Amino acid sequence: MRVLSGIQPTGNLHLGNYLGAIRNWVKMQDEMDAESQCFFFLADMHSITVHEGREQRIRNVRDMAAALVAAGIDPDRSVLFNQARVPAHAELCWLLNGTARIGWLNRMTQFKDKAGKDREGASVGLFVYPVLQAADILLYQATHVPVGEDQKQHLELCRDIATKFNTDFSADVFTLPAPIIPKESARIMSLRDGTAKMSKSDPSDLSRINLTDDDDAIMAKVKKAKSDQDMLPETAEGLAGRPEAGNLVGILATMTGRTTDAVCAEFAGKGFGAFKPVLGEVLVETLRPIRQRFLELRTEDAALDAILDKGAAKAATAAEPTLRAAYDAMGLMR
Ligand code: ADP
Ligand code: TRP
């Protein structure tokens, strides 16, 4: 088993990233056997699709590294690095640009969302973003890629690129990866709108719980979260058509490792006035130690850089055979 996943080092981690992605990375890392390996990286090469000044970009990479370590990624057991330190990503991306089709990329909903109405004004980098993502995954022969629901389409594209490359060059260069999407927390929704996903790009800070929020801020956001006037139902079925209620119940279920049915059974007949303090307390207690470790680690730049350097060296070694095989299959002599 080769587990690999990445996250863009832009802005702070929020509860959606934590429950939808990072927590599962940590779980997979902790359940690894001796033959398996985990690769987790900061997609800083992807982050060039978001304009950022030099100093801020440097800070973002270190902050995200600190956040991952604080959340439980152990750089001694997992390979933790940033993409820019491993040039093989950019190289393989270029090779795969010969295989990926414009028609395939045109169907990517993330590009459509991020480009918005001004498609002609979007960067080429934003358009080919999923090809770099495919390179990230295929370089390491990853078998399992834990991501949130929104990345499913990029994983399918990655498999299409791998299949076409292997077929076109009659070579078995790439392994087809499987997405690992958590059932319970694949989509954590905004606290202000149960139909929009919790995201760092939402202009309202009340819409999300950030890893940097202190105890009071977390509790205040939960109390202000949009809910409804109805009582909680006996089973999860009763949450149908109640997106905000469903989201809050779902968050508590995920945080406490229970089903939404079990959470409904506990609160059946009670209102959100009773539910929210319980949810707030669970969030405060779970996130506090992560936040505290994060705030300490993020002041240790030299230690963070050392972690990323070491990870990059391991990653480059692991990537080399596949990169060489891809050049060779195409008849490009290095
Ligand atoms: P954002 O949407 O805030 O910009 P990213 O796109 O950087 O976050 O996502 C990083 C990881 O977190 C991805 O694996 C993504 O699927 C996951 N993720 C992001 N938002 C959510 C959410 N609201 N619920 C579940 N997972 C999420
Ligand atoms: N595109 C992913 C996101 O927005 C981040 C990412 C880049 C990634 N490369 C990856 C995720 C490779 C999984 C595997 O969240």
Structure description:
There is one protein chain. By secondary structure, this protein is mainly α. The protein folds into 2 domains: 2-186 and 301-330, HUPs (Rossmann fold, 3-Layer(aba) Sandwich), CATH 3.40.50.620; 205-296, Tyrosyl-Transfer RNA Synthetase (Orthogonal Bundle), CATH 1.10.240. Helices cover 52% and strands 7% of the residues. The protein is built from 12 helices and 5 strands. The protein has helices at 15-30, 54-71, 88-96, 102-106, 109-115, 124-138, 152-168, 215-224, 243-256, 260-267, 272-297, 301-330; strands spanning 2-7, 37-42, 79-82, 144-146, 178-180. The chain has a 3-stranded parallel sheet. It has a two-stranded parallel sheet with strand order 4-5. Helix 3 (88-96) packs parallel to helix 12 (301-330) and helix 8 (215-224) runs antiparallel to helix 11. The radius of gyration is 21 Å and the shape is globular. The relative contact order is 0.15. The structure holds adenosine-5'-diphosphate and tryptophan. Tryptophan binds next to strand 1 and helix 6.
